[in-house]
Automatic annotation (TrEMBL):
Superkingdom of the organism of origin: Eukaryota
Region (Disordered), start-end ranges: 254-284
UniProt keyword Membrane present: yes
Compositionally skewed regions (Polar residues) per UniProt: 262-272
Residue intervals passing through the bilayer: 291-314
Record's compositionally biased regions (Low complexity): 273-284
Protein name per the record: Lectin
Keyword Membrane: yes
Keywords linked to the UniProt accession: Membrane, Transmembrane, Transmembrane helix
Length: 330
């Protein structure tokens, strides 16, 4: 299990099967954690793991390095300057049914690093969006309903790869047979400046969706440019897209991989080759209040299940031994 280890209890001799108290450091906000339990008894041993996500901070509070205001940025200007794009086999009035892949790599100017990105996107018919190899989100109820995402980069970065898996259905219930991807993106630098990214023929496209196409390290050097079909406001779509009034807040961080440990562990989920993405859950006033109790309760439940399994195995081994000697009780 890859990740940065937060806490390791080591071997604990105890007959408790639940409510083991977490005694590690304070857990961060908006972070996905993985915990594991290794139980050893005279009948054998077993290991299990699960995960949980801590909530956001209390209202009217802020943390250095995070957005203090929940205000959704106005991306209408950059969206209005974007084009509907697809692969070269499509035109404004017709596009074959099927899956398509699109990629765009943004490299920061010298002396600047990216701290966050805001994305407003929709696709006719369906999309899955990835950033630096990790799933960010997918289509809503239809292309008229755009989706909005705010990405915070835990460590400022100099390169961002946006990847989109788009699908055109072209079913009889969906005339006319058109398809398109459109997005407006703003990227914030550590200097306080902003860069804008529109969908146009600077994006790359593929009529296939290669395995791993969304990964940061994927080689797209042979991909042709996407085809710009029309600016926003043109074609079948006109100005029918509704700009999202809700925004999903997502944190992307990176950390080195460490080996798993014996005992009770709480691990901040991460990978060494690509960043980890953590989705913020709905706001809660008690988001981080009872993390210790949550961890203890979850740990206790899994431990109880493991002990029951081990007890059954021990009882079965005892019964087999009795059967082999010809003496047993029912």
């Amino acid at each position: 299990m890859g990740g940065r280890e937060i806490w390791n209890s080591g071997l604990v001799l105890s007959n408790k099967t639940q409510l083991t108290r977490y005694t590690g450091p304070h857990l961060g906000f908006n972070t996905r954690y993985i915990w594991s339990v290794n139980v050893s008894t005279s009948a054998g041993s077993g290991m299990g793991y699960s995960e949980f996500v801590t909530g956001p901070q209390a209202p009217n509070s802020f943390q250095v390095g995070r957005r203090a205001s929940p205000t959704i940025p106005d991306l209408s200007d950059v969206f209005n300057s974007s084009s509907w794009i697809w692969t070269a086999d499509a035109n404004l009035m017709n596009a074959p049914a099927g899956d398509r892949a699109f990629r765009y790599t943004f490299t920061t100017p010298p002396g600047k690093l990216a701290a966050f990105a805001d994305i407003l996107i929709t696709v006719d018919n369906h999309f899955s969006l990835y950033v630096n190899g990790f799933f960010v989100g997918e289509s809503g109820p239809g292309w008229k309903h755009s989706q909005s995402y705010h990405l915070s980069f835990g460590a400022n970065i100099s390169r961002i790869v946006f990847a989109i898996h788009a699908t055109n259905y072209n079913t009889p219930e969906k005339p006319p047979p058109v398809a398109g991807v459109i997005a407006g993106i703003q990227i914030g630098f550590d200097t306080g400046e902003i860069a804008l990214v529109s969908t146009n023929n600077t994006w790359l496209s593929n009529t296939k969706v290669p395995e791993g196409f969304e990964l940061f390290s994927f080689d797209d050097s042979t991909w042709p440019p996407a085809k710009s079909l029309t600016k926003y406001g043109g074609g079948f779509w006109e100005t029918s897209v509704k700009f999202s009034t809700d925004q999903s807040n997502i944190t992307i961080t990176s950390a080195p991989t460490t080996s798993s440990s014996v005992g009770h562990t709480v691990t901040a989920h991460s990978q060494s080759t690509t960043p980890t993405i953590t989705t913020t859950p709905p706001p809660s006033n008690n988001a981080a209040g009872n993390v210790g109790a949550i961890v203890g309760g979850i740990f206790g439940g899994v431990t109880t299940i493991l002990l029951l399994i081990l007890a059954c195995l021990w009882h079965r081994r005892k019964l087999n031994k009795q059967l082999n000697t010809g003496a047993y009780n029912i």
